[in-house]
Design goal:
The chain has about 290 residues and is α+β, with helices and mostly antiparallel strands. It is built from 9 helices and 10 strands. It has a single domain, classed as Ribosomal Protein S5, domain 2 (2-Layer Sandwich), CATH 3.30.230.10. Strands 1, 2, 3, 4, 5, 6, 7, 8, 9 and 10 form a 10-stranded mixed beta sheet that branches. β8 and β9 form a beta hairpin.
């Protein structure tokens, strides 16, 4: 008998992103605050008694074998030595190459969902360790709540953030993360802060900066234009790029956010979303 589970995979924003160093293996050391948001992909997993992993309805420009959801399923399968397989139906809503962590969130939700579906009984810590093999921010999505992050993004401390309304703009460009982190113009020595510094800030929208933003806006005019567009319409909002781009966001009162959404240039895509403090599909696993 086949079993089925549907899991949401939420996007994230970076409230700030500081690059504080670089390891000998090339990975960058960072400090950031990840906040989950209400923009989600939807994943339906159906178990199979045979070991095949099949992805259906995923992004057309990514071959299944290169998709993180398939890699996540195969990794869990190999690690737990299960003989079961699955089909993965992936409905993409989160723009790709947008600094929103959609691919990593999808992979995390597949690990969590298949751990339930296949009854492989891994703990949250086990899943987070596996997730790190797939990407530096996959552990965050398995952590299941907004977090102050350090290291390469895998050292996580829970934080409670205002669940404010946000206007999120995807300016239509896909930015490879590796290109940003290879840039010679990227700041790699931002002075370290503490979680207390962030929590004690009077206005978290004003705290810190995104060290990737200047690199991206110099190369991608569309991102710079989106930031300027938000600054002109909501002057006090301090719009900021998420991750390595290209999406930008600002805290905006709900009615105004909807009004601005209707004013967006047609070449951009906009979303009115809410900040979250916990994963919409599952509580952290013990």
């Amino acid at each position: 008998m086949t079993k089925k589970i549907t899991v949401s995979a939420p996007a994230k924003i970076n409230r700030f992103l500081h690059i504080v160093g670089q390891r000998n293996d090339g990975y960058h050391l960072l400090q950031t605050v990840f906040q989950l948001i209400s923009l989600t992909d939807e994943i339906t997993l159906t178990s199979s008694p045979s070991p095949e992993i099949n992805r259906i309805d995923g992004p057309a420009n990514i071959p299944p074998e290169e998709d993180l959801v398939v890699k996540a399923a195969r990794l869990l399968q190999k690690t737990t030595k299960t003989n079961l397989g699955c089909t993965i139906k992936l409905q993409k809503n989160i723009p790709m190459g947008a600094g929103l962590g959609g691919g990593s969130s999808d992979a995390a939700s597949v690990l969590w969902g298949l751990n339930e579906l296949w009854d492989t009984q891994l703990t949250r810590a086990d899943l987070m360790t596996l997730g790190l093999e797939l990407g530096a921010d996959v552990p965050f999505f398995l952590f299941g709540q907004s977090a102050f992050a350090e290291g390469i993004g895998e050292i996580l401390h829970p934080v409670n953030l205002p669940q404010t309304q946000l206007l999120l703009i995807y300016p239509g460009v896909n930015i490879p993360t590796i290109d940003v982190f290879k840039s010679p113009n990227l700041t790699r020595n931002h002075p370290a802060v503490t979680m207390s510094d962030f929590i004690g800030s009077a206005h978290i929208d004003q705290f810190g900066s995104n060290d990737c933003e200047s690199v991206v806006t110099q190369k991608y005019q569309e991102v710079a234009e989106a930031i300027t567009w938000l600054k002109q319409r909501v002057p006090q909002s301090n719009p900021r790029m998420s991750g390595s781009g290209s999406s930008v966001f600002a805290t905006v009162e709900a009615n105004l956010a909807k009004e601005l959404l209707n004013q967006l240039p047609q070449r951009w895509k906009g979303f009115v979303v809410r900040g979250l403090n916990s994963h919409p599909s599952y509580n952290p696993i013990s």
